[in-house]
Sequence to fold (895 residues):
Amino acid sequence: MDLRAIAAMPTDAEREAVDGVLGPAGEDLPTGLRAAKTHRTLLLPGLHALQARLGWVSPGGLGYLCGRLGVPPAEGYGVASFYGLLSLRERPAAFAHVCDDIACQVAGAEQLCAELTARLGPAEHLPHRADAPTSATRTAARWMRSPCLGLCEHAPAALVSVAGPEPRACAFGRASVARIEAALLGARPDTPETLLGGEGPRRLLARAGAVDPSSLTDYQAHGGQRALRCALELGPAAVLREITDAKLVGRGGAAFPTGRKWEAVARAPEQPHYVVCNADESEPGTFKDRVLMESDPFAVLEAMTIAGFATGAERGYLYIRGEYPLATGRLAHAIRLLRGEGLLGPDVLRSGFAFDIELRSGAGAYICGEETALFNSIEGFRGEPRNKPPFPVQSGLFRKPTAVNNVETLVAVLDVIRDGAAHYASVGTAASPGTKLFCVSGRVGRPGVYEVPFGTRLDALIQLAGGVAPGRRLQTVLLGGAAGTFLTPDELTVPLSFEDTRKRGASLGSGVVFVIDDTVALSPLLRRLAAFFRDESCGQCVPCRVGTVRQEELLARLATGGSFESRNAELALLDELGQAMRDASICGLGQTATLAIQSALAKFRPHSGAKP
Amino acid sequence: MTQPAVELSVDGASVTVPAGATLLRACQAAGVDTPTLCWAENLTPVNACRICVVEVEGARTLVPACSRVAEPGMTVLTDSPRVRLSRKLVVELLGSSVDMSRSAEFSRLVSRYGAQPERFGPKALTVAQPVKLDNELFVRDFARCMLCYKCVEACGTDAQNTFAIALAGRGFEARIATEHDVALPDSACVFCGNCVGVCPTGALVFKTEHALRAAGEWRESEQTVTDTICPYCGVGCTLSLRVQDNTIVRVTSPSDSSVTQGHLCVKGRFGFSFVEHSGQHKP
Fold:
């Protein structure tokens, strides 16, 4: 391989940023194909470093990074242009991403965007949209619209980053023009504590709010590390048995049995094994994993260590979305403390078990929450999902057997191991034992994260969260997320368990309970969902790449009355499109992109003028 | 040692294929015509176009025949209502967004599946854009690009190992690009033309052909194809010379050639003008 380098030269600041990740240029990495194979995983961290230092990824900076890593510049550009948080155009060092997704939309994001346009000037176009001018190499825009930032309980939300030698980033709720302007000037707008509610035993949220997230001592004083000690005593086989007996299933949306996943990895003959924590939570309306990581970071890391012990892995990767700077900082701090105390490293708790965790940040791509896209992202490739099979338990990260779990699933592991499967199943339903976190947001009195036993009725949960405002009528609830289901007021008696929701053609998804009262117009909400899928499709397969565009166009026709045939003909077309996308798309994004919208159109007539 | 065999059922017929063979191969063995667009025998399958999807009993979704490995006892349906619907929609989605008019295979699929790309309306978003003319050897007409990844694979590890182009952007705005979208002469491109050789839709076209087509003088019915051996180095690549009016208009190599697997270098692909030189070098 004889790679041609980019002609543009890096500035000193760009060299410094890249060398900060890769080490000094003198003690060089091996070059050529071998370098590309072994060091490509540092591509995204390098891009992050350039973005944080300069506020954009310049040709010179990208060229220097690619040259040192042995990555072809065209491929480096392909990776950089995949992510929403990376800019390939020069822009001001202080920049705001302003959420206009569903939860923020109903909290006045459009008004906020209009005010921002008046005050700061027009927004930067999304880089991958057709309306983006491709020739311009610089922009004066100081903000852009963003998909869900995971701060739905404090909507509207914004993420502000200030590039420089000491880069800063902060995400905050209750965004206003004044607060965004202050953040652009370097202030850190406060965000109120997230309301933690629920009913029944507090397990997943046992320490949240009660423990100092920066103190390992405090974590241990609250029972921290007990599960890990139990696991080391039990041994891997017994740990796997407990997880299987507890019928623990994944909380990221797919509800796959965790025990089966771990056993498959533990048994896989190929070495090494990896553990990956999927903290790329990006489903619109979802913020439970953020709250867990911000308030109880040691718990996530302890559970990953147990996963490593049970599956025979010595290395874990925690992939957290780039929109969560506070959680990222707390996890990084926690990892340092754990290493210092010998709770991570070559000899965990002097048991002879070696395990360490690497923290990786996403850069603005919902699709990287798809497990195989996540692997590609860590490996330094575009976040395009892989075809399955082979499944991650056989061929995952770096094509090795990998156990990949959602944050909430991992935290649930601690209770299972510490108290045993039987105790874990003492609440919940027979088929869905234990408790579950729900992200309640929208037009509800007390939005927040709620922990309830499986089987709790949806209407009871909404009551816990204060219900809709007095005098208002509940119109519908979006359950599960952007790929979930809209439920009518009559359907709210559904018990929140995997089996009961499945029976009703719905799913718990990522635990989204997005409450919509009669003041909210459904049409713009549905169009925002369609725009979300269109923006977040990776573009790899035809059904999703073009299908998400066609769905968005169809909703626009319905909304503006520009339908070229009858409403029924449009719905029939969407039915066929949805069926083909479900059947023929590579991954879950395309397979589920029409579900919520189809459920709304079947149950309501959001575009007929009169509210349903 | 005999290779272990896998027995499975395709549309009710029992077929046997070697272990590791794909469902596409099993379909071929069963005599079932399975359409492909992004697949090519000389490239790694990317299963991006999804036209080859088939139904496997017990699977939640359809599976791409081009890359799914056959397993013992699989029951495969290639013409079920689900398969027909998905294939029709893939044709319609492609046809409504990309200029597929140069693909004979695509026209065949439109009639085979009764596809009506126009039903997404006259305002359906397309990838229409001006032709990129930035070098003397080939043009890039991305209004015809269906993102099959073949050119990227041919430029990369499947043939040339030059890595001058890659997928950039995301979603509907995903595109084939050089670094920072620079013109080809400013990129790593070595002008081997292997990307042109594998392009199934005419998005990448030799300049000679592009000029003739633009002038309305491209007459396929009058063209002949002659196989010969490249005169340059000692490798001895097979060349297929397409000739119109006694002029070479396109040079390719058969994809089943054991020497080239269909791929050539810049000299074999483009260095033929001496043939037409009227001077004293004529043999």
